[in-house]
Amino acid sequence: MKIFAAGIITETNTFAPVPTALEDFIVQRGKDVLAGRVDYPNLDLYALWGPQAKQQDAELVFGLLAFAQPSGTTLKAAYETLREEMLADLRAAMPVDVCLLMLHGAMVADGYDDCEEDMVRRVREIVGPKAVIGVELDLHCHLRESMIEPADIVIAYKEYPHVDINDRAYELFDLAVAAKRGKIRPTMALFDCQMIGLYPTTRQPMRGVVDAMSEAERRKGVLSVSFGHGFQFADVPHVGAKTLVVADGDRGLAEQVAREFGMRLYGSRKEIGFESLSLPLEAALTKAVASRKTPVVVADQSDNPGGGAPSDSTFALRWLLDHNAQDVAMAILYDPEVVKIARKAGVGARLAMRICGKMGPFSGDPVDAEVTVLAMREKYLHKLPQASGDPQLYPAGDIVALRCGGIDLVVSSERCQCMDPSVFADLGIDPKRKKILVVKSVQHFYGPFAPIAGEVIYMAPPGAVAPDPRLCKYRRVNTERLYPWAADPLGK
Ligand SMILES: [Zn+2]
Predict the structure, then answer these.
(1) In sequence order, which residues have a C-beta less than 8 Å from that of residue 221 and are 6 or more positions away?
(2) Which residues have beta carbons under 5 A from ligand 1 (an ion)?
(3) pLDDT higher than threshold 70 for residue 492
(4) Alpha helix (H) residue ranges in 378-489
(5) Distance of alpha carbon 240 from alpha carbon 231, whole angstroms
(6) Are the C-beta atoms of 35 and 87 separated by less than 8 Å?
(7) Cα–Cα distances in Å, from 474 out to 104, 238, 274?
(8) 389 pLDDT band (50/70/90 cuts)?
(9) 3-state secondary structure at position 313
(10) Which of 54, 181, 182, 405 sits 20 to 30 Å CA-CA off 303?
(11) Host H or E run for residue 354
(12) Cα–Cα distance for residue pair 334/410, rounded to 1 Å
């Protein structure tokens, strides 16, 4: 059996002003891995699926895997260049029995509202009707019939934070191989929940739904249950939350289970979204300063680079400096100029800096302050731990720690979401000894930070990715058919 694996992964915030260009993608190619050049270990699909392929006595051919930090619409030439390289790799590997694709599900390029649909359709044209196509998606995906139709098996992550990327990949591999061997006959169905939002899976009632989804996969004939949360920062007509079920040869069962979970999630729509969980800036920071449950972890949700925000907003920094807050650490602020100057000056230097607030109106005003350079790291890879397997690694460029009044700032030369307290520790800042930790993240920080946090506060200041979807300026989405614009669009 011959298995081809490849993918192009980015999440597109169509409201973000800066487009995603070819140079924004980090790329790992199978041929480079074979030649001993592993630039990005967690983009190495030989490392991910190699052991399973060996076990199954299958040949694994890894083409290209490209990843870009979420940003604005991908440039047409960038998308087409990567896609054509991937398809050329596939043609060279033909004939293949199984094709495994690592995609995001919310990638938009100029001229392509749904890059994943385009990719899966083209892959099908090349591999023919008999090969099995398995696709893994981020749960922040735009699911629709025309995208899943050319595939055999589509699975989305279940966990937000995404601690199960590896586990879902192992599962996809096993199901795709079983399908090719004729042991299962996958068939898929979608259910449209007619709602949109951001749904953390770490608290109830969402936690219970995710556990029940895993439980349902043990039912006879049910192969996989996914909840595509959708990605609200995309002005594409098919935006929204949908459930997706893969059943064994029984389309009716797939439809029934997709509806069951879709209606259950819909029934909880008022409790599971961040629009009901997040506090405005003043309330959040006042609460953090007054709290005795230290360290208080405050999520600056509206400036999360993982959703396409610039990560250089100063609203929280300004408030904390104005209120003379002490023992605070904040990560990861994006300001390549500040990093460059700090690196030139060296550790211990005292500098007058103009910090952040530069990318646009959502960034607030720059902060002018005296800072001391505390520490620096080159070409830093920031981690997102996984439930099993190695952590996912994200390049943050060069990073520096600066002391600014009572606040230690971690500043990077590349945009990178703060997902793990190690980014503080690696710069000599002990996160457990701080009173307040402000992290630019919506939810990915939660798993690694929760064990050290006395309290977690979700904060929705002004910003590019404010968690309430009603603040998105859609022009192409019929919001009348979606919660929270409509109170009860499914009429239950
Ligand atoms: Zn996601």
Answers:
(1) 247, 248, 249, 250, 253
(2) 138, 140
(3) no
(4) 422-425, 446-449
(5) 7
(6) no
(7) 21, 12, 19
(8) confident
(9) coil
(10) 405
(11) strand 350-355
(12) 9
The dihedrals phi and psi of 23, each to the nearest 5 degrees, come to: -70, -15
CA 58 to each of CA 96, 173, 181: distance values in angstroms, whole numbers, following the listed order: 11, 11, 12
Closest listed residue to residue 320, CA positions, set 226, 235, 437:
437
Q: What torsion, rounded to 10 degrees, do the Cα atoms 265, 13, 137, 446 define?
A: -70
How far is ligand 1, taken at its centre, from the CA of residue 67, in Å? 13
Sign of CA dihedral 14, 17, 23, 26: negative
Sheet of 455-459, strand order: 350-355, 367-384, 392-404, 407-412, 328-334, 436-439, 296-300, 455-459
CB 296 within 8 A of CB 458: no
Q: Which two tokens stand for residue 370?
A: 């005296």
d(CA 307, ligand 1 centre) in Å: 8
Q: How many whole angstroms from 326 Cα to the centroid of ligand 1? A: 33
Report H helices in 314-464.
Answer: 315-322, 336-345, 422-425, 446-449
Quick: pLDDT tens for 302-321. Answer: 999 998 899 999 999 999 99
- Laid out side by side, the sheet with 186-192 consists of 186-192, 242-248, 222-228
Average pLDDT, stretch 281-299? 97
Q: Among all chains, which residue has been given the structure tokens 């139709």?
A: 149
Which tens digit of pLDDT belongs to each residue from 194-234?
999 999 999 999 999 999 999 999 999 999 999 999 999 99
- Between CA 177 and CA 375 the distance in angstroms is 48
**CA 42 / ligand 1 centre spacing (Å):** 16
Task: With CA atoms as reference, report the closest residue to 76 among 107, 106, 111, 104.
Answer: 111
Spacing, Cα 90 to ligand 1 middle (Å): 27
Strands (E), 255-319: 296-300
Q: How far is the centre of ligand 1, averaged over its atoms, from the C-alpha of 45 (Å)?
A: 19
State how far the Cα of 325 lies from the Cα of 314, in Å rounded to an integer. Answer: 15
**414 closest CA partner among 396, 432, 427, 399:** 396
Q: Of 375, 391, 371, 374, give the one whose Cα is nearest residue 383.
A: 391
User: In angstroms, rounded to a whole number, what is the distance separating the alpha carbons of residues 9 and 242?
Assistant: 20
Q: What is the pTM of this model?
A: 0.91
Strands 186-192, 222-228: parallel, antiparallel or unpaired by DSSP? unpaired
The rounded Å distance from CA 348 to ligand 1 centre is 38
Average pLDDT over all residues of the chain: 96
Distance (angstroms) between ligand 1 centre and the Cα of 323 equals 34
Alpha-carbon distance of 196 to 233, in angstroms, equals 10
The closest of 366, 372, 423 to 394, measured between CA atoms, is 423
